[in-house]
Amino acid sequence: MQLALVGLSHKTAPVELRERLAFGEDALRSALTSLVGRQDVSEALILSTCNRVEVVAESADDRLIREFLCDFHKISHDVVSKHLYSFRNADAIRHVFRVAASLDSMMLGEPQILGQVKEAYRIAAAAGTVGMHLTALMNRAFAVAKKVRSETGISQSAVSVSYAAVELARKIFGELTGKTVMIIGASKMGELAAKHLKRNGVSSVLVTNRTFDRAVELAQVFEGAAVPFEHFIDHMDRADIVISSTGAPHFIISKTVAEQIIHRRKNKPMFFIDIAVPRDIDPTVNEIDNAFVYDIDDLQQVIDANLKERMKEATRAEQIIDSEVEAFCNRMQSREVVPTIIQLRDTLEKVRRDEIERNRRHLKQMSPEQQAAFDHITKSIVNKILHHPIEHLKQNAQDPNGPDLVDLFRKIFNIKSSR
Amino acid sequence: MHVVLLRLALALYFVGFAHAVLTALNKKQTLFRPALVAVTAGLVLHVLSIALRAMEVRYLPLTQQYEAFSFFGALAALGFLIAYAKYRIAPLSVFAFPLIFIMTFISNLFYDPSSSIPPVLRSNWIYIHTPLVFIGYAALFIAFAAAIMYLIQERALKSKHPVRFYNWLPSLELCDDLAYRALAIGFPLITLGIITGALWAQGAGFVWARDAKVVFSFLTWLVYLLLIFYRLTGWRGRKAAYLSIVGFIGVLVTFLGANYFGGLHTFNQ
Fold first, then answer.
1. Does B153 lie at the interface with A, CB-CB under 8 angstroms?
2. Residue A329: inside a domain, yes or no?
3. Residue B210's pLDDT is what?
């Protein structure tokens, strides 16, 4: 197997260039077919997202792929060459594993990339440009990504404001089903946080805003209820989570008010998320028992801590990937058809010779001509036995199931890896 | 035979103990599955050991100090497994497993093969009074562990410096709920335990009010009564957790101190 990978990403190229080299879905298909149509490229797959364009191919020559990228997008090689990276064989495998496991992502550990890689594989499979090598590589990459995610904390903790809000709410309430969130003021970020909370189980949404119409509008989006701004405090005891993002120049929820509300709630805990600047909620509300106040800086602090945690987990992920790359290379080598056939012949030849050696005593009585004939006969028996299996192996090795077939052969004939 | 089983159980509980120590050191759950399996297996052997001892002495094996510790260890293990089955709170193990191990360990230290039963304890009341108290203690222990987890988690949330150690702790609401439910089970049990104890003493003609353990357990009971009262008026969270911890310290003083106060509950008179 000869692998070559050429690409560019947010780490090597500005967005203007990434845009120019990106493939739309239709372009992807024609690009794949035209690439595999070229000489010396037998399989290919293209991953094109807003952060990266990568071409992975079964080919001995990465320059071919560079040329292809430039030709296809009608861009001069001089313009892109310093932004492109190329990897071959083990390095290409490592890069594919790292990308799928989200170690190369702009937001370390973000989960979407795996879906995008799977989609790229699906498209290439539909276009018929992946064979046994890329199939084996990509399936392994998916498994490695899953392993990295489950064995390290790289995707665990929240690294955006709205996810951090959900994560903290979970620490207070556990399951969010049956909980109520109140949104005060209408801001993009507040809306986003509410959306995430709702997706994570929050049952009802209350919306209040200085402009009542806007509150009604937003309430419709969340299938919730609008509350007039003048007496939102009266409704607040129903809310377990409060997201505030008004443009008010002063605190709109004081410690005394919060105390009264908590009291009305019979001390049931409340989580205040204050994403307004200047702040809406008096920070001393946090001193009240069963009340938890997080402002935008507090949330950012949580995110920073989580990011640091992810970086630490990334080193562990790299170790997993190192050992996976090595294991994959070894397996690929042992799955090669030609070496397997050679080893198969050698194995049986050794059996033949060993047997002759063991029975040398009996064979001594034969004349040299007889011995030569005997040698010839045993050889041709071995060859006849091997003829069909080897033909079968040669014919079917390029199938998607080819590697399994090679494996099976190695197992039943007890062929050890050459390494 | 029963002592061999008890020691095997202790060895298995040690896996749980190791899990708790490693988890606290690594700040991340370590060896939980093996520990859970080991503690469950340990409990089976432990129960078997208690049953064998019961058959040997033909009485409830709770009249000697080592038997009492052993019984408490087994109940703590049972309490943990029930709470775990219901709530799936693995972190509870960090508190429960060391307690189970230490109780069983002390039991092994005090092991005394004599099967003489003090005549004062020869009464059918022992079958009612002691299990009630012990099961009640086990439930209150769960409440105590839940309260500690609550306080750690609450402190982390209030301070706004989330630490990785707390990621595996359950949510505040779950800790509080668990503490309340365990209290709701434990409190009636120790109440009944105290009542049956009083009836037993009266029937036997003791002046039970002069027994140190009786006095302490009554004080402890008052703490829990207060907690129940406050809970009903809407207390929850931190304050309830503090009181729950105070109550359990009372339980420990009552239980561990039994031998040193003198009085009816002293073993090996």
1. yes
2. no
3. 62
